[in-house]
Write a structure and sequence with these properties.
The complex is a heterodimer of chains A (296) and B (283). With 296 residues, chain A is an all-alpha fold. Chain A is built from 13 helices and no strands. The chains are: A mainly alpha (296), B mainly alpha (283).
Chain lengths: 296, 283
């Protein structure tokens, strides 16, 4: 192989299997979705005439208050979930960076939520939130915090936040591990010098530690945002978008447009809008990663 | 090993109470899932709850692990499907991934292409799902394991390339060059020189890929409709949405489905965390 073909052909041969799979399973479907989004296509068992309708789907989508609301809810979910994961994750990393007995065990323990499958996580929290027999109701009642059982996922005002709590529980360990690894690179002598000069703990964190770990943190923040923005599974299991559509996120919206209403044309335009917002986030990831690694 | 720095007493109290709080937050949901799976239905419907079961009830596990009843059959079929699909996708992704990673590390494949690969898995799956659905339908592979294996490959390959690329990048190129001067071809060098050195990274990649495939829900929900292809996440969603009124059954399915990833994560923690963290923290 070496002498018969040059380095350039070799490069493409090595890339071929990966390139083929990704072209067929990701790139071609994306282009097809883009094409469908300009048509009035519908999912039907019978062959139908599909006509090109230009930007009509997009105009409809962007003036559809329900869709705009679902985008807003998705951004809320993304912002609050990731924000909480970062605050909790960094706090936990700082905690696990201290010296105490059982540190190795504690560091191992926090992988547990991350390892539990997403669907099991969703089902577990749904049972915990159960309005009639749930553990949260029982616990809060026995502690005297609430007087009677509540329907956590049935109350439009709190349902989304309860879903977010379940998501934070599952995903904060990832942020914690990244922050913990980044903390190992903070130069101790700088911290000690600051301590000798009388800087308090908060000031040392804010002026030295945070600037030192912000690069890796930024990468994981954007990565988590990209993931959170397409949230589907946890919503599907916990609330199916209810109550009163309060947890109906963008991916769930597209899913229903496709598979409940069978409108593939307009559904595709929703999907492309969601994709465009994702692309902005992905670009943010690219910038953050490039800043961190130089090469990419 | 532990240093003897003196910590003011109030700080010690703060530290240890935060740790207890953290341990409770992390463990309580898991512990409760386990307890639910072992409590009798009457304990689970008490108000307020009977936290510690009045008697331990192992009947759901017996029922689920015995293929002769409806729930058991559905559960075991889904576990087997998940195992086959996740393993196959992992193996294919590693194969395609290591070749491509070598092209990026040593054959100057463009980093823009690398980023395009990564971008495909960051896009929401709803942008791919419908054309894939029609294509699989035309090919007659809807509701088969093959359809899901193909999708999961596309999901795992970019990540596998990235992880292995970062590991090949740091190897000294001289050994490979020496092998090639001796007359070894690229594939031979890759297999005999590079692979043995990056074996730990391949292990970490394999485990992360397997866990990702085991966890996937959206494609599985859309592309599978019965026991021949349903994976464990879809089966769990079915159990929890269906007419099962006993929370204990749902909890038991959850516990059993979590066992493989939890065992892998706890045993190979170091590997996995280094793989997870690798991309964002420069070593």
């Amino acid at each position: 192989m070496r002498s018969l073909i040059g380095a350039k052909q070799q490069k493409w041969l090595l890339l071929a299997p990966a390139l083929t799979v990704l072209a067929l399973i990701s790139f071609v479907p994306f282009v097809k979705t883009l094409w469908l989004s300009f048509s009035d296509s519908e999912i039907s068992a019978l062959p139908t005439v599909v006509s090109f309708i230009g930007l009509e789907n997009y105009i409809y989508a962007l003036t559809d208050p329900d869709f705009i609301l679902s985008l807003g809810r998705t951004l809320y979910f993304t912002f609050v979930s990731v924000g909480a994961e970062v605050i909790l994750g960094v706090a936990v990393a700082l905690l696990l960076n201290q010296q105490f007995r059982g540190r190795t065990l504690m560091r191992a323990l926090i992988i547990l939520p991350w390892a539990i499958p997403t669907i099991v996580n969703a089902v577990t929290w749904r049972l915990i939130y159960n309005p009639d027999y749930g553990a949260l109701n029982s616990l809060l009642m026995q502690l005297g915090i609430i007087g009677e059982y509540r329907s956590w996922l049935g109350d439009p005002d709190v349902a989304m936040n309860m879903v977010i709590l379940a998501d934070v529980w599952k995903n904060f360990p990832l942020v914690a591990y990244v922050a913990l690894a980044a903390l190992q690179t903070v130069p101790m002598d700088m911290l000690n010098a600051a301590r000798l000069e009388g800087a308090n703990a908060w000031r040392r964190f804010y002026k030295i530690t945070l600037p030192w770990i912000i690069g890796p943190l930024l990468v994981i923040i954007v990565l988590r945002s990209v993931e959170a923005f397409r949230v589907f599974d946890i919503i599907y299991v916990m609330t199916r978008g209810g109550p009163a559509n309060q947890t109906k996120t963008a991916s769930f919206y597209v899913y229903q447009e496709y598979f409940s209403y069978l409108r593939s044309g307009s559904g595709s335009s929703y999907a492309i809008i969601v994709a465009l917002i994702s692309i902005i986030l992905i670009y943010g990831y690219y910038k953050a990663a490039k800043r961190q690694n130089g090469s990419l | 090993m532990h240093s003897t720095i003196k910590r003011p007493r109030y700080l010690s109290y703060c530290l240890y109470s935060s740790l207890i709080l953290l341990a409770f937050f992390v463990l309580a949901p898991v512990a409760w899932l386990l307890l639910m799976s072992l409590s009798s239905p009457t304990d689970l419907t008490k108000v307020p709850l009977q936290w510690i079961p009045s008697q331990w009830d192992f009947s759901r596990y017996a029922q689920l692990l015995d293929g002769d009843n409806g729930s058991g059959e559905r559960f075991l079929a889904a576990m087997l499907n998940s195992l086959i699909i996740a393993t196959s996708a992992t193996v294919i992704a590693l194969f395609a991934g290591v070749l491509a990673a070598y092209a990026f590390s040593r054959r100057n494949a463009s980093m823009l292409l690398m980023f395009a690969f990564l971008a495909t898995i960051m896009m929401p799956p709803v942008t791919y799902i419908l054309p894939l659905y029609s294509a699989f339908s035309d090919l007659g592979i809807l509701n088969t394991k093959v359809a899901l294996i193909i999708c999961y490959c596309a999901m795992l390959i970019p990540f596998a390339i990235w992880l292995m690329k970062t590991n090949i990048d740091v190897l000294p190129e001289e050994i490979e060059q020496a092998a090639m001067i001796e007359g070894a071809g690229t594939l031979y060098t890759l297999r005999k020189v590079v692979l043995p050195i990056i074996l730990p990274a391949i292990g970490a990649t394999a485990m992360l890929s397997f866990l990702t495939a085991w966890d996937e829900f959206f494609y599985a929900l859309i592309f599978s409709s019965d026991l021949s292809a349903k994976t464990i996440p879809v089966a769990i969603a079915d159990f929890s949405a269906g007419r099962v009124t006993d929370f204990g059954v749902i909890a038991s399915v959850g516990v059993l489905a979590s066992l493989p990833p939890v065992i892998v994560a706890l045993f190979f923690q170091r590997f996995i965390v280094s793989g997870l963290v690798g991309g964002s923290v420069k070593g």
